[in-house]
Specification:
This protein folds into two domains: about 170 residues, Rossmann fold (3-Layer(aba) Sandwich); about 160 residues, Rossmann fold. The chain is of the alpha/beta class. Helix 1 packs across helix 13 and helix 6 crosses helix 11. Helix content is about 40%, strand content about 25%. It is built from 13 helices and 14 strands. The radius of gyration is 21 Å and the shape is elongated.
């Protein structure tokens, strides 16, 4: 019986969760297809029309997990889609996963990698990379046969970023900002924030990245005075926009790392609890300012801060220079090597 190398991705994303995890998967798949091993790749996703449609549009092999299946039933469902003789590495890119879930996958002789796993089960996996829940400081923890890497070492960036990193950014005299608050249902906060920016800031050029559930805002913000708004569809890469703006207003997820890598000062808002810790770590390093949770008061606070920063270009330059420390764009390469190592080891 022929033994095949298989990489299974279990990922969530779509209208309510945003597309960040799906885009990360696409980048990893692209690299795996050009690797020496060239494994068979299967992507498992819970039912989500937008997420499934996006993955299929990329030409990826998608297997839909029925909504009726509980989390406890998923490992068995996944195992039935591969041969028992295959060498399988399962990459879990879901925020929380139970110990029993990982143990079941290992019972089927899968090697397991978890990404952004904030639960205690991270020590059950063969390897865990915690980027979004641990901030910008790096360290590794070993426990038995498990390794947990904290920090940005394995952060997956779009291939565009190395190209833009070779160019030196300059803080311009014009006032331009990028607003990218993630793909979830935060439309109310986005509107409040931009209304506040209109009140406290004059002649600001805004690049607003629409999440998959935010496409209905075009009419509301068309033709506004004192605020030139470019409404952008969900982007494969924010690098071209981060290269030309002076400041970014973001959530505490992956875009925060992209801002730091590009040297773009960030005002960060926490959408969910675990993002607070992440943003605070960036604040300690001086590469971002924490504006608090997403609510009306903090939207006004953020708009006032935008105005103050554009009046103090020196502070913008300081934050810009601090952001790049400890970051590079080689996380994808390192993660691919981990996957290849686990496939060869079995």
């Amino acid at each position: 019986m022929t033994t095949k190398s298989v990489v299974v991705f279990r990922v969530d994303g779509g209208a309510h969760l945003g597309m960040g995890h799906l885009k990360k998967t696409k980048i990893l798949v692209r690299h795996l297809k050009s690797s020496l091993i060239r494994p068979k790749i299967l992507i498992f996703i819970k039912e989500d029309k937008k997420g499934i449609a996006w993955l299929k549009k990329q030409g990826l092999t998608v297997i839909v997990i029925p909504k009726r299946l509980s989390k406890a039933e998923e490992p068995l469902f996944i195992s039935k889609k591969v041969s028992f003789s295959d060498k399988v590495v399962c990459v879990l890119d879901i925020l929380k996963v139970s110990k029993s879930y990982i143990r079941q996958l290992k019972h089927f002789s899968f090697s397991v990698i978890t990404l952004e796993n904030s639960s205690d089960s991270k020590f059950e996996a063969n390897f865990t990379s915690n980027t979004l829940v641990e901030g910008i400081s790096s360290k590794s923890i070993k426990k038995g046969s498990s390794v947990v890497d904290l920090g940005p070492k394995y952060r997956v960036f779009h291939p565009d970023y190395p190209k833009y990193l070779k160019r030196k950014r300059k803080i311009s005299k014009k006032s331009s900002i990028l607003v990218s608050l993630g793909g979830g249902s935060d439309l109310g906060f986005s509107g409040i924030l931009l209304d506040a920016i209109r009140t406290f800031c004059v002649n600001i050029e805004v690049y607003f990245v629409l999440g998959p559930s935010q496409t209905s805002i075009r009419n509301r913000w068309s033709g506004l005075k004192n605020l030139k708004i470019h409404l952008l569809e969900p982007q494969e890469s924010l690098a071209p926009y981060l290269y030309k703006v002076d400041l970014a207003l973001v959530a505490g997820g992956g875009t925060l790392y992209e801002c730091a890598l590009m040297g773009v000062p960030a005002l960060a808002f926490a959408k969910v609890k675990h993002q607070e810790k992440n943003i605070i770590e960036f604040k300690k390093k001086g590469s971002a300012l924490y504006m608090g949770r997403m609510n009306h008061a903090n939207a006004v606070k953020g708009a006032r801060q935008v105005s103050r920063l554009f009046e103090n270009r020196k502070q913008l330059s300081q934050i810009s220079s601090l952001g790049k420390k400890g970051l590079d764009a080689r996380g994808t390469e390192r993660l691919i090597k981990k996957i290849e190592f686990l496939l060869k080891r079995r």
